[in-house]
Amino acid sequence: MEKFTVHTGTAVPLRRSDVDTDQIIPARFCVSSSRSGHAASLFADWREDPEFVLNRPAHRGATVLVAGNDFGTGSSREYAVWALQDYGFKAVIAPRYGDIFRGNSLLNGLLTVVVPEEVVERLWQLVEADPAVEVVVDLERLEVRCAGLVQPFALDEDVRARLLAGHDTISATLQYEDEIAAYERGRRPALPTTL
Amino acid sequence: MGSTLAQKVWDAHVVRHGGSGEDLLYVDLQLLHEVNTPQAFDALRAAGRTVRRPGLTLGTEDHNTPTLALDRIIADPAGRRQAQLMRENCAQFGIPLHRLGDPGQGIVHVIGPELGLVRPGMTIVCCDSHTTTLGAFGALAFGIGASQVEHVLATQTLGMRPLKNMVVDIPGRLPEGVTAKDLVLALIARIGTAGGQGHIVEYRGEAVDALSMEARMTLCNMTVEAGSRAGMIAPDETTFAYLAQRPGMPQGAAWEAEVAYWRSLRSDDDAVFDRSVTLDASTLSPYVSWGTNPAQAVPLDGRVPAPGDFAGEAERAAAERALSYMDLRPGTAMRDVAVDAVFLGSCTNGRIEDLRAAADVLRGRRVADGLHMMIVPGSARVRRQAVDEGLDRVFAEAGADFRAGAGCSMCAALNEDRLRPGQRAASTNNRNFEGRQGKGSRTHIVSPPVAAATAVAGRLAAPADL
Ligand code: SF4
Asked: Can you give the pTM of this predicted structure?
């Protein structure tokens, strides 16, 4: 996983709430077997509308998505995260997320930042007024900055440390192999097996 | 201070406490399907890792599988490739797999309980958000993403931050004709799509006690639509009776010991919940969704709301978008909404009781002219039982299309079964998102009896209307 420290980029204001993962990437595109190649499927149905915000030339190359409440609800498809990353997004800023999506994003190094609704509204206004305005997502200082606005955000310390270092969780867990084995020896023998 | 049911199951699975961070939990069972897993296996291979406990893992094919005939190959080459990879991956790592055509094949959340693999007090994960279904047994069951699938394959554990506890008390009895589906739709309409976010929800009360295991699965299935990670019901005599009929159960003294342990799995009287909601079951009636998220639902007796009925600006905007997508006018009586298709199936309502409930309505009646009613069994076992009970004949005589293959079918529209753009369906599935049942499709979530009555009436209807 790539490290995430401080990211600076332009943003897309997605003025919608309850954006479920079926909208982020419709199910019919979740048939590939790889983690990449999903950029064209991102918001595929909405992008058919030429007026959809992602289609506006001013937002080409944007790397930060600013969305409304409850972004990424619904299906657990990690394709939603891969499509966002593949398109070029490094961070999402929203007031609240679907839990599974949020977990998936942080495991893939897509930083999902939580800020209050009024701050999202302020960011939307700033980006709509000037699509070229830079948004800084600073994981070291736990801050979002944009045109004089400085907004702190919170992230669990272990998740932050992992993202800063770009570490993979499996190797971390495998350090506790002895504890896993000890737990296994104590499992109730009546528990079912599939073999 | 006592513990909740969820805390008891959680505590019994902690391999390592994470202090203020994530606990490392042991996973008793991981279920897999073909869609969200190829990347996990690839990453596992790339890192030179292996599957720690293939015997605590089970795969099935469900999302892409065709339903018209069992020997039909998957039409879409990408879907076919996913099924092929699933077979190769399971073979390489020694994971048992139920392929299309196997008697044990079906929707991942339907087959686990059928096979007796889902029991009280277990931790269960699957690459699918509706894994919440399995909490009906008093198991702690989560949907996870592909990266977490890889983690569980490699370590049989999952890092999880402790979740909050919420209780939904449901006193009273559901009136005649009102199902668990209506109950959960009413609940989500009340608390919203984020009402249970960050929580494990426990359902309890007279109405829950009276539900069959299958109805409890329907209730827990849609818990995720309220944003919760898991839904749970404490095991009771209904649970034990269901389990006693399943294959592979311990016998004799070992069974008695299990039941004794399972009985301890309930929230203590002095357990503290972070949030509590009470919903009186006796006040409920059939519910239907009108919008594009499951919280946008009203009683069938109600009308399509207007954006101005909603409090917040975001809710008003969402309602406006939903009305336009669904092509509905505020004030329209829900019963006046005509549909093109009816879909009975999915992990929410694709079990035998759901098929029986639909057959009871369809017996001696005909599906409305020009309307397509598709019935897809949740598993091969469900289909076999339906045939044994003669339900297939009832469906055929009514003019409904009872499919040969089991799977997700039109719930996610990944196989060939999908609505055309602009088509409107009454569906027993769990999601009415834009495009969920095919690009441009319009979905009204309903219970099985309402689905069957709607198929006969041609518009949203309850059996009592016929
Ligand atoms: S039936 Fe629908 S909700 Fe259930 S697992 Fe399949 S696609 Fe998902």
From this structure: 0.95
